[in-house]
Design a protein that fits this description.
It contains three helices and five strands. The protein is α+β, with helices and mostly antiparallel strands.
Length: 145
């Protein structure tokens, strides 16, 4: 149970520290080993998500990568592919083919300033998994080239 002092400390906590702490808490809840740079892995249906703070971005974002099931790349997908059957990919997300892994992925950056608690992190992860699943489903409806 958190004390009043803990709540005051958390209110003054820098956003990146807060998000790293929340990621560690979520890792603990899901039975994953804590790390200096936490990476939360969750399997949501057939979509594996990996979530961490993106260190290479100056304004620090939560980086969420959704890995779809391995498959043959059925056809060339343009860089800004947007299937008619799926909602438009938000500007903070990219739908890509990962040749080394043999699968499609969605990479999404979410500013840490907008994430207040575990619920915000989980909502961002679930939304990213939904985007990935919708795009993957829509790919199956595309003509082969």
């Amino acid at each position: 149970m958190h004390s009043h002092d803990d709540n005051a400390d958390q209110a003054n906590e820098p956003p990146v520290s807060r998000i790293n702490r929340l990621l560690r808490e979520l890792m603990e809840l899901s039975g994953q080993q804590a790390a200096d740079a936490p990476v939360l892995e969750l399997l949501i249906g057939e979509v594996l998500t990996r979530t961490s703070i993106a260190p290479e971005v100056a304004d620090r974002c939560l980086s969420i990568t959704a890995l779809l099931p391995k498959c043959e790349q059925p056809h060339y997908v343009p860089r800004f592919f947007s299937p008619a059957a799926a909602d438009a990919c938000p500007p903070s997300a990219e739908f890509l083919w990962h040749a080394d892994e043999g699968r499609y992925i969605v990479v999404r950056k979410v500013p840490v300033a907008g994430l207040r608690d575990e619920r915000g992190i989980m909502d961002a992860i679930l939304a990213t998994a939904d985007i990935a699943r919708d795009y993957f489903t829509a790919l199956g409806d595309q003509p082969q080239s």
